From TrEMBL:
PROSITE patterns given in the database record: PDZ
Protein name: PDZ domain-containing protein
Residues in PDZ domain copies: 163-250
InterPro entries: PDZ, PDZ_sf, Peptidase_S1_PA
Amino acid sequence: RITFGGSVEIPGRVVLLHPDHNLAVVSYDPSLIGDTPVRSAELRPRFPAAGDEVWLVAMTPRQQVVSRESRVARVDAAAIPLPHSPRFREFNAELISLTETIPSVGGVLADDKGRVLAIWASFSTTGASGKPNAFFAGIPAELVEDLVAPLRAGQPFVWPSLGVEFETTTLAAARARGLDAEAARRLEQHDPRRRRALMVRRLTSGSPAAELLEVGDLVLAADGEPVTAFREVEKVAARGSEIELTVLRN
């Protein structure tokens, strides 16, 4: 069910669930909300950087809207350990953390014009004691745009997942694994701020990638283009049914 303005509740229908990032698109019949004033949110699909000013707009457990101005503390690769019991675990995503937050059940991060930069959501993890835990972070609106753009155009959503979980490693660590100076220079020029490389962390059993890649492989390029971020690999994979990866294996 979907609640509008804390006063109108109507049925909704899940029309799409992202196979990797667990984002859902929910549809509803606009006629059911009558003359309740509702305006569509505008997405701004860009990655905020550390230090950027943002607004956290969220809902309390009592369905009250709260907001607070904050700053991006950092944008980090999701590093969530495997759960003890089967459940969804976010991976291959850059998550946004804030310097200051407010208690909520979720919401959005927006710029000063109200455009949505990220979804503020709870992520399940496992605490030090082994018990289930959770934390809040922002998942960039670019991933949301991937879902809704084809639906708005009347096209099916296609997600060519590689079946690979990546992690990031520093260029210094990559050099220790055999990355030569020229390859390190290309990656540094491509991403001078973060100076990192992508490494294979896990593979989906039975996928084509599981037959060709190995855990620990450094992925240097996709279709000839240097890659240092998860989204870069996803964007290249979305172009067609095949992708050529340049890999360093020690």
